[in-house]
């Protein structure tokens, strides 16, 4: 009986090397070899009998791990940084698995980041067709009214792209300091999206945090702390992603 085969990028994702999308980039750039031969074309299939390596390092099948990290400000949401700044994977140095972040948070934004070696989950949560709500809380310059924020609830154009309507709520205001705390719930993931959205209606962001991702929140965690995502939470998150 022939060994079952799967696409190379899926095998890399399942092994925790990277998300499936990033795995495709690794293949195209010549980082991946099968049985000692570099592969740069999409569509190659491999079985458990094939030896797969990335930059000469053999790829093994790892147990899937899922973590919820409270990222502090001043930390890069990446696996490495060429400027030697602190990255989110620094919090997981005690783990042998290739843990990496799902999506990104800006350097100066704090909050919830999902860390995993589960490529299927990462691909599901980052793919545009899967609409998982993400809740942000922003401190802004100025005191907006509901009317000021109304365009965000109807959808605006940013960087020549249509932005889906957001749920927006004013949590508090400080008239003396002329600032406000605003909550936004969105499901897209454009670069600097929340900052650009609030800037577009005249309220620059001074401080930003992601408080919730789907059914997951930061309850019980301080910046720099993390915990494993519970099996029931993971099941509910996948259900949300699948609609």
Automatic annotation (TrEMBL):
Family annotation (InterPro entries): PsdUridine_s_RsuA/RluB/E/F_cat, PsdUridine_synth_cat_dom_sf, PsdUridine_synth_RsuA/RluA, PsdUridine_synth_RsuA/RluB/E/F, PsdUridine_synth_RsuA/RluB_CS, RsuA_PseudoU_synthase, S4_RNA-bd, S4_RNA-bd_sf
Annotated Gene3D superfamilies: Alpha-L RNA-binding motif, Pseudouridine synthase I, catalytic domain, N-terminal subdomain, RNA-binding S4 domain
Keyword DNA-binding among UniProt keywords: no
GO biological process, one term: enzyme-directed rRNA pseudouridine synthesis
PROSITE patterns membership: PSI_RSU, S4
Primary enzyme class: isomerase
Highest taxon listed in the record's lineage: Bacteria
RNA-binding S4 domain location: 6-65
GO MF entries: RNA binding; rRNA pseudouridine synthase activity
GO cellular component terms, semicolon-separated: cytosol
Residue ranges crossing the lipid bilayer per the database entry: none
EC number from the UniProt entry: 5.4.99.-
One Pfam family linked to the record: PseudoU_synth_2
SUPFAM superfamilies reported in the protein's UniProt record: Alpha-L RNA-binding motif, Pseudouridine synthase
UniProt key word RNA-binding: yes
Family that this chain belongs to: Belongs to the pseudouridine synthase RsuA family.
Protein name: Pseudouridine synthase
Organism name: Lacticaseibacillus saniviri JCM 17471 = DSM 24301
